[in-house]
Amino acid sequence: MIRTILLLLFVAVQALPAQTLPDTGTIRFEVGGVRIIHRQTDNNLFFAKLYLLGGTQLVTAETAGIEPFLLDVSERGTARYPGERLRRALARTGGQMGVEAHRDWTVFGMGTTTDRLDSTWAIYTDRLLRPTLAAEDVEFVRATTVAALAQRQDSPDALLDYLADSVAFAGHSYGLSPRGTAESVGRISREQLQRFHREQLQQSRMLLVVVGNVPREKLRQMVASSLGTLPRGEYRWTTPAAGQQRPGSSVHIEPRRLPTNYILGWWEGPPAGHPDVPALRVASAILSGRLFAEVRSRRNLTYAVEARYRDEALTSGGLYVTTTRPDTTLGIMRVEIRNLQTFAIPTENLRPLIQQFLTEYFLDNESSGEQADFLARAELYRGDFRAAERFVADLRAVTGEDVQRVARTYMRSMRFAYIGNPTQVNRFRLMGF
User: Could you list the residue range(s) of the whole structural domain that residue 362 is in?
Assistant: First the structure.
């Protein structure tokens, strides 16, 4: 009951028109060339996420990870806050800042209270506009980043994620790691960081999403005096290419002596703005539930199995499982996909499943930062942040025939990574999905 009430409250808030009260709700505007989406709140918190568009489309295998590397180094000092002064100044505000690397963009975010907004914003924007990038700071961050990236080899799941993307999106920008590799970050020079900052930090790459209690005119002034001083640039956001033929094998097997075997495969979906996307979300959720029931609960073949769905500019979905009996498990998973493709679910039977999905989705996305991501995806993937308000209606309009159709259309030609005992799996079984 509590979950249902929370969901209804969230949906009610989403449906409020921007003109209900002066200076409330959510609106979009521009300051210079910087696009801004502002969701007004009535508390004393302020969260901002700056989406630097492009992600892995801006890099090569040799320069992968350069933008998050640059932003991480900016934490070591700026023109106004050199060295330790920056960390002491931020500590006094109680604010937080962070960098998130994604395949479609890099996010530089901040959170603070409204009474400390001016001082926190000054530090935040100085990191963007005037990082010192001192040689010793570059080397310090490089060493810690390379060490963290090298640990992929020690974590089967982290290595599996990396290998599966490399196989599924070979020759595509999505095949590159947003954080880069130990090799790429190890080679990026200070001069390359400086050049990237000089050439790529431009207003046309920026979408700023703010969730917080700040007058809109004040927000305009804050942006105009900081991000608004950057070159406008001519960058245009585009969805990565879809439907390309992938080079190389569709299966990568990494021999490891482990207690179990790790398997992850991806299929390519449509662009995020495609009308099939709501049905694909539902189909993936249904498949995940069936796999859990059949593979884990009924057959006891694993502790971890799921169908995944990735909400990116170019959507994708996949199968993940850890098991000591991979051939048997993969056979069952293939049967469940074929059942979804062969037998249409009565539409009336979808309603409670969709309601459960919506409840869990909104409860997982109720923080201010997650609301910012929700608005940004709607703006960039569907062309209008207000498309987020249609999310619930779009899912509830999905029929059983829609689920069957998208399963047939997209859940095929999967490309897999496998880590474990190579003698326990038949490569051709993986190639048969």
Answer: 251-431
